[in-house]
Amino acid sequence: MTRPSTHPLRGLAILLTLLCAAVLLTLAFSQGALQHWLSPQAIIDLLRQSGAAAGILPAIAVFGVASILAVPLSVMTPLFIMAFGPVNGLVCAMCGGLLGSAVSYGIGKALGHQAICQLAPDSFMAVSRRLEQRGILAALLLRLIPVAPFAVINMIAGASPIRLRDFLIGSTLGMIPAMAFITVFVDRLMATLLA
């Protein structure tokens, strides 16, 4: 006798909790005392201070958490490069992006295939099939030609049959060109502005 599955309900509860947390954080930062933390200079200063005090490991964790909360990598990467310089900034962005990918993948795995499929049936099925059939290549292409936000792709991957290792390899290969371009562009721009 098979036990009825409550997995989709549990997954839906997890997703709703995450959405509520994201909405509350957005409200906290857009209204009131926390709003000043959103300015690029405030973020850069805070990153530099924490980097000087504790090294880049906390910065990698911050980048990872921000990517889980769907803050675009194209916004975060320049801030980290300006705060830590081209080499350490790129290391933070790559490692933080991969950390965020792994955690979001785990969230997708916890939500489960059925819960994700109920929330985004058409896009989920198309992306899930590509990930299952092509593994590393599909993950690489999803990073090079994003069809959905970074965190959403990560959760879909977690709910699909692709292995975490293959997903992270494909993600790494797919993130390198964009992050390298952003790093060179920001570094040259800063050199020009400070000359």
Structure in words:
Helices cover about 80% and strands about 0% of the residues. The protein has about 200 residues and is mainly α. The chain has one domain (about 40-195). Helix 3 packs across helix 5 (about 85-110), helix 6 packs across helix 7 and helix 7 (about 120-135) crosses helix 9 (about 150-160). It is globular. The chain starts with 6 loop residues before the first helix and ends with a helix. Mean pLDDT is about 80; it is low at about 1-5.
- In total, the number of domains comes to 1
Helix fraction by DSSP (H/I, runs of at least 4): over 70%
Average pLDDT for all residues: 79
Structural class: mainly alpha
The CA-CA distance between the termini, in Å, is 74 Å
Strand content: under 5%
Shape: globular
The gyration radius over C-alpha positions equals 18 Å
Oligomer: single chain
Major beta-sheet overview: none
Low-confidence parts lasting 5 or more residues at pLDDT below 50?
1-6
The SSE string, one letter per element, is HHHHHHHHHH
The total of beta strands comes to 0
The number of helical segments is 10
What can be said about this structure in brief?
With 195 residues, this protein is an all-alpha fold.
Give short descriptive properties of this protein.
globular; disordered N terminus; mainly alpha; single chain; 195 residues
